[in-house]
UniProtKB/TrEMBL annotation:
Pfam families, A to Z: PBP_like_2
Signal peptide boundaries: 1-26
UniProt keywords, alphabetically: Signal
Gene3D superfamilies referenced in this protein's UniProt entry, alphabetically: Periplasmic binding protein-like II
Name of the protein this chain belongs to: Substrate-binding domain-containing protein
Family annotation (InterPro entries): ABC-Tungstate_binding, PBP_domain
Domain PBP, residue spans: 33-252
Species, as recorded: Aeromonas enteropelogenes
Keyword Signal: yes
Length: 276
């Protein structure tokens, strides 16, 4: 066999090895990040805007598990998520204090609003206090649709009923155990009132026969955090990917993208990684 033949064989062998290596790398992408989050971040369209950009820039795919805040934190407690994105400060503090989460980081905020039928039979449009607004709904015999799912919105709603000194057990109170989108849809169909985060409201308002009737109460402030699930409890977590996503979201780039996300020309969330 000539030298040229040996050289050709060596080159072909090298090329084959490189092709196999490349194929193996293509078949072994970065592991997905399991993100447990609220229905508001998904149903508002925010995650559909952000996550493809994150994946394109980092190579990490993201598996979104959207539920209420209570269920999302429970996924973290069980090691079924790598990162949680939620909006219930008291529940998040308990999650971190119990050792299930680490590095809680402010991400963004919007606010809650009470929406209802345009004719507003409970007169909420004349009320500025959210608790008094709920009192009026009960006293006027109106229907209120509750998510009833231990989400951040439901937790906020319960604190407002408590502040109103009203037990949500009256005839018009309906707890449906659904996300924000279905809750808004039912309220629209029944001509009822409900509490919603502004982001999901803006994403859905064109489909609903409802109006914002009570807003601006400081108790309706709605902050979101991202929290790493503690790898000391679950060593098999994709903590590298989760940390990459958390850092990307709170970076100047990620914060600008959050601020740039709009529906019908309106920003749905205010980026707030510095917690100001």
């Amino acid at each position: 066999m000539t030298l040229n033949a040996n050289l050709k064989r060596a080159v072909l062998s090298l090329c084959a090895a490189l092709l196999l290596t490349t194929a193996a790398q293509a078949e072994s992408p970065k592991p997905p990040v399991r993100l447990a989050t609220t229905t508001s971040t998904e149903q508002s369209g925010l995650l559909g805007w952000l996550l493809p950009k994150f994946t394109a820039e980092t190579g990490y795919p993201v598996q979104v598990m959207a539920a209420g805040t209570g269920q999302s934190l429970k996924m973290g407690e069980n090691g079924d998520a790598d990162l949680v994105m939620t909006h219930a400060p008291s529940a998040e503090k308990a999650f971190v204090d119990a050792g299930f989460g680490i590095n809680p980081t402010p991400l963004m905020y919007n606010d809650f609003v009470i929406v209802g039928p345009v004719k507003d039979p409970a007169g909420l449009g004349q009320i500025k206090d959210a608790a008094k607004g709920l009192q009026a709904i009960k006293e006027k015999g109106q229907t209120f649709i509750s998510r009833g799912d231990e989400s951040g919105t439901h937790i906020k709603e319960k604190t407002l009923w408590q502040a109103a000194d009203v037990k949500p057990e009256f005839a018009g109170y309906k707890s449906i155990g659904q996300g924000m989108g279905p809750t808004l849809t039912m309220a629209s169909e029944l001509g009822a009132y409900t509490l919603t985060d502004r982001g999901t409201w803006l994403a859905y308002q064109s489909k609903l026969d409802l109006a914002v009737l009570l807003e601006g109460d400081k108790r309706l402030f709605n902050p979101y955090q991202v929290i790493l699930v503690n790898p000391a409890r679950y060593p098999d977590l994709n903590t590298d990917g989760a940390r990459a996503l958390q850092n990307w979201l709170v970076s100047d780039h990620g914060q600008k993208l959050i601020g740039d996300f709009k529906v019908a020309g309106q920003a749905l969330f205010v980026a707030d990684a510095n917690g100001k």
